[in-house]
Amino acid sequence: MSPSPTPMEPARIELALDGITHGGEAVGRMPNGKACFVPHAIPGERVLVEITEERKRWARGRLVEVLEASPARIEAPCVYARPGRCGGCQLQHIEPTAQLALKRRIVTEQLERIGHLEDPPVNPTMPVAAFHYRNSARFAVDEQGRLGFRRAGSHEVQPIDECLLLDPAVQALRDEAGDGWQGAEEIVVRAGLSTGDRALIVRPGAGGLPPMPDGSTPVALEGSSGAVALRGEPDLAEMVEGRTFRVSPTSFFQASTAGAALLVRLVLASTEIQPGDTALDLYAGVGLFAAFLADAGAGVTAVEADPVAAADARRNLAKDEVTVREQDAAAYVAALVADQEQRDVVVLDPPRRGAGVNLCAGIAELDPRVVVYLSCDPAALARDAAALAKAGYELTEATPVDQFAQTAQIETVAVFRPAHRLARSAADDDG
Prior knowledge:
The protein is α/β, with parallel strands linked by helices. Helices cover 24% and strands 30% of the residues. It is built from nine helices and 22 strands.
């Protein structure tokens, strides 16, 4: 019998890095011309990488050694923010001010490459907080019942007892939750930072309901049909810009309370609400933006497809000039268009996949004077910016907001206005 062939060692190459993806990986060109994506690296560096994956047009490499470091490189303060460990913080090895510049670059490049916009008007990234900003966290559970986060590019759980992104109140709740969660799939810890409310939300695994921890913290069980309270009242109250919002266990709420306040201020500044305006808040969630649009004097319709979040919105907006519609955003807008209705202002905060061509076209048919689009994915924003441009709406301003510092996530507030009105305004100025 002939001996088995000796496995080939993974190829190692030197790369000069000059780009960055919207996922936070640095990019360099291999000798064969393929793009190579390298986590934990920085544009401008020269590095030694080990090729871990190679496809027809691209490859991915593991950082072996930094041969020429960027001035922006720092030692990540978290012991888990290392190659092969926690996949949560893609940028913790980069100095915070440089992170802001890179995020602006990512948004700009996505708008240029995917949105086909020339010299898009992207403002400097607005910071929120570098650490200790999250009001919630979703932990995975390993086979021993320990809480942690997924390793980068893997389903394997990295046990984690301290996360530097968590507000101290959330970290304290994680400490209280402990690590005896055998049988659970995920554990969510949430806190109302301004109210002191706290809750644990348990998603059971195939093994059924795990044992409940001691204590008085409210606990809810999350299933496919919603959440059921197991102990106490798991709804939270959180205050943003002086208003209190009730949030059910499964309802979406911004994971940074300070970031939510900044987003509200940007939306109000961009919409320039006048008393009597008609405003549409799509993907309204628990009513965050609708509340402040109404406070500014607009008559608002808040549209939210999730029944639990829509119920929260009705509760939060009960005293406001707001109508809450539990409906798909695209279907609702299509019905307005069919009835030849118009709106003065449209605000939308779609999920990561974006709004889509049909909804963008429908929004344009409503002839709003301004569309404010909140995006959590620059690539989706770029696709929808192209769709809005085709429908006659020009991007006049995009402001990245760094409410998820140390990670590659970017929130962007993008403002679109009708191109024909902009052209008329420019002509009046010239005259």
